[in-house]
Amino acid sequence: MRVEQMADSRGSLKWIQRLVEHNPSVLNSRLQEVGALATDRLVWLSPFFEDGYAEYRDADFLNRIGQGHLASALKGFWPQRGPQWDALASDGAGGGLSV
After folding, report:
1. What does each of the 99 residues of the chain score in pLDDT, given as a tens digit?
2. Using an 8 Å Cβ cutoff, are 94 and 41 in contact?
3. Beta strand 96-98 with 88-90: parallel, antiparallel or unpaired?
4. pTM above 0.90, yes or no
5. Which residues have CB under 8 Å from 48's CB, separation 6+?
């Protein structure tokens, strides 16, 4: 499921939109500093203005990070309309990050 979001003017939604769209290297560096990433080579896939700042869930989030083949496993594990991820990234080596 793909859910468009408004450009937010406050709170965490505003900051994740701004960082991913305008300064992803700051976000990557900070995630690496706190040990959440082994690499700073993330490619952010959402949220972006041209995609309606969309947030993704279920099979659509897996497709977005290049892991669509896991959709049936996710369906067996997590109920439909599971988490809706604020931001998605790929590490370019088959791994993904959902925030």
Report:
1. 888 888 877 788 888 999 999 999 888 888 888 888 777 678 899 999 999 999 998 889 899 988 889 988 988 888 777 788 899 998 777 677 777
2. no
3. antiparallel
4. no
5. 20, 21
